[in-house]
Write a structure and sequence with these properties.
Elements: E1 2-11, E2 14-24, E3 29-33, H1 40-47, E4 55-60, E5 63-64, H2 69-74, E6 76-79, H3 91-101, H4 106-119, H5 135-147, E7 153-157, H6 165-178, E8 183-187, H7 191-197, E9 200-205, E10 208-213, H8 215-222, E11 225-233, H9 236-244, E12 251-255, E13 262-269, H10 274-284, E14 288-294, H11 299-316
Parallel strand pairs: 3-8, 3-9, 6-7, 7-8
Antiparallel strand pairs: 1-2, 1-4, 4-5, 9-10, 11-13, 11-14, 12-13
Helix pairs in contact: 3-4, 4-5, 8-11
Length: 317
């Protein structure tokens, strides 16, 4: 649905996007993350025909965004980082205006307005001016305008920026629901959103794609360590002393949980069979094992490792 090949964009002497290539399939939610200034917004603006590129190609639903810009735009819904709303307009009037701009008219326009109001849960606010709405509802109006012409592709630049935790969860759930039928690329600085929402993650650093995979696969392929949680009923000091003596244990820390057992996060090399070794360790010492499982690696650790590596490489050059 989206195909980006060898995309390059510069601002004077600064290369914002450097030979970037990736694709997004129909019905896929792709999280686009990276440090500030990494090239996320520039890439999204090129895809949406807002900016020209210096080199490379971009197609949306088979249409070249440079050669067939109008056809490509018809297939894109775009919510920029700075949500461009007319605050003196009513919600319904604004959506009517956007629909007219998008070429949606007559009976179809009225049906689409009803649909997006329902999808974005705007019913309680539909008779208010946009200027009266909270930040969360304004983001919903922004999503509604991006959906008004029923495009197959949505490009969302920081759609949860500035929202409180409850609003973030609401918008995230809305994106997941919309993503069942559309291709979505959205950028965010909240990495937990990517893990909870996205089928695939793109990480960009210094204008280059440094990772392109599912959040789970990125964690497995990038980190050279694993963390196993083990719960043990036994003498605390003796457990810790003997954990320190195990060859495969790179480190451990006690985890405070409301449990009769003492829980530890044990760090080891990612390819080591840590769980069976810990089970054997507990059994040999005649302690009681209450839990044993590999914990999920935080996407933040993956992000920091990849972007730090790219920054160091740039610095060496």
């Amino acid at each position: 649905m989206i195909e980006v090949k060898n995309l390059t964009k510069s601002y004077g002497a600064t290369i914002a996007v450097n030979n970037v290539s990736f694709s997004a399939q129909a019905g896929e939610i792709v999280g686009f993350i990276g440090p500030n200034g990494a090239g996320k917004s520039t890439t999204m603006r090129v895809i949406t025909c807002y900016l020209p590129a210096d080199d490379g190609t971009v197609t949306v639903d088979g249409y070249d965004v440079f050669e067939e810009s109008i056809e490509a735009r018809k297939r894109i819904g775009y919510l920029p980082e700075s949500n461009p709303l007319y605050t003196d307009m009513g919600v319904v009037d604004y959506l009517k205006f956007v629909a007219q701009v998008r070429g949606v008219s007559g009976h179809t326009r009225n049906e689409r307005i009803k649909d997006v109001i329902d999808i974005c849960s705007l019913e309680p606010m539909m008779h208010k001016n946009i200027g009266e709405l909270s930040k969360g509802y304004r983001q919903r109006v922004g999503l509604a305008q991006a959906l008004i012409h029923d495009p197959p592709v949505l490009i969302l630049d920081e759609p949860t920026a500035g929202l409180d935790p409850y609003q973030i969860i609401e918008i995230r759930n809305l994106i997941k629901e919309i993503g069942k039928q559309k291709t979505i690329i959205f950028s965010t600085h909240i990495l937990s959103q990517v893990a909870a929402t996205c089928d695939r993650t793109l990480i960009i650093s210094n204008g280059k794609i440094v990772a392109n995979d599912s959040p789970q696969e990125l964690a497995l392929s990038t980190m050279d360590q694993q963390i196993t949680q083990v719960g043990i009923i036994g003498p605390h000091e003796e457990i810790q002393t003997k954990l320190e003596d195990l060859d495969f244990v790179l480190g451990f820390k006690q985890v405070d949980l409301e449990s009769e057992s003492t829980c530890y996060h044990v760090t080891s090399h990612k390819d080591h069979q840590t769980a069976p070794e810990l089970a054997k360790f507990v059994s040999q010492n005649n302690w009681e094992l209450t839990e044993l499982y590999k914990t999920a690696i935080d996407l933040e650790d993956v992000f920091l490792k990849l972007t730090r590596s790219e920054s160091q490489t740039q610095g060496e050059r």
